[in-house]
Fold this protein.
Amino acid sequence: MANSVELANPNLADMSSDFLYHLAINVPNTKDTSELQKQFGDVRVICVGGTASRMRELAIYLGKTLNIPNSAEPVDLCKQGNRYAVFKVGPVLCASHGVGSSTFSVVLHELLKLVKYAKCQDPIFIRIGTCGGVGVPPGTVVVTKDAYNGLLNNEHEIFILGERVVRPAHFHKDVMLAIVACGQQSDGFDTINANTMSTDCFYEGQGRIDGAVCHYNNEQKMQFLQRAHAKGIRNIEMEATMMASLTLQAKVKAADICVTIVNRLNGDQVCGDSEGKVPLSLEQKKNFEHRPFLIVGRYLQKLLSN
Ligand code: R2B
């Protein structure tokens, strides 16, 4: 039996209205959300990713893959908010979240409230992103099992009311396995499940030596990356611990699927020029970014046909 979302915040029951500020979506009467249910009640999956343009591309891709009528020109439903973009293609939302957990957590709180008010049934949140790889070739697609923070602990740390609160950070096992199973040998790239390190800083937090500030040497960096590798970590990004933790708190299913665009055991620079000075051209990066689309497209075809 399908279930609506029950959020772990008793205060919501006392609010007669709610303005989802960053999405610019008003809920004028929380006790009668029929208008919102008409617009969003059919949503089964919320895909999220860093940029608005990639999420628009994903919406167009999923529209084609899932045969959704009139989906070639998706419109940004949250343009007025000037922060995040949200596109709807049939039962799928595609929303941008920016870089890092802090920007993502803002829109994730509001998307969770949106699916609650719209009475969506068992919605699944899927992050589709890019990341650095640890000992896997660029272009590998990694579906996260456990999310580790920058201390290499499998937990999410957040400061609440002046206290350090530590919460579990793992993704839904069945969803993760079902997504990994969508990878095919003929794809020409591997889709694997592994642990993910998630940091608040792209440079020092991820052990890069090419940031504006760095007080360690290459050897120390490599030791750190090897420690991560020994914990089963095969990719590094900036959102997994927060996403895993918040969706666990909200009791909704979630997954994180990212394509690696650099092997950090070989270097820090991602891509840029086409003269071969860095491992990946911008064109290849674009091509890699579509790999998780393919995998998630297959997963949604199966999921939504049930
Ligand atoms: C991967 O790519 C972004 C940083 O460039 C960040 O959102 C992440 O996790």
Remarks:
- The first strand starts at residue 18 and ends at 20.
- Residues 101-117 form the longest helix (17 residues).
- The mean pLDDT is 96.
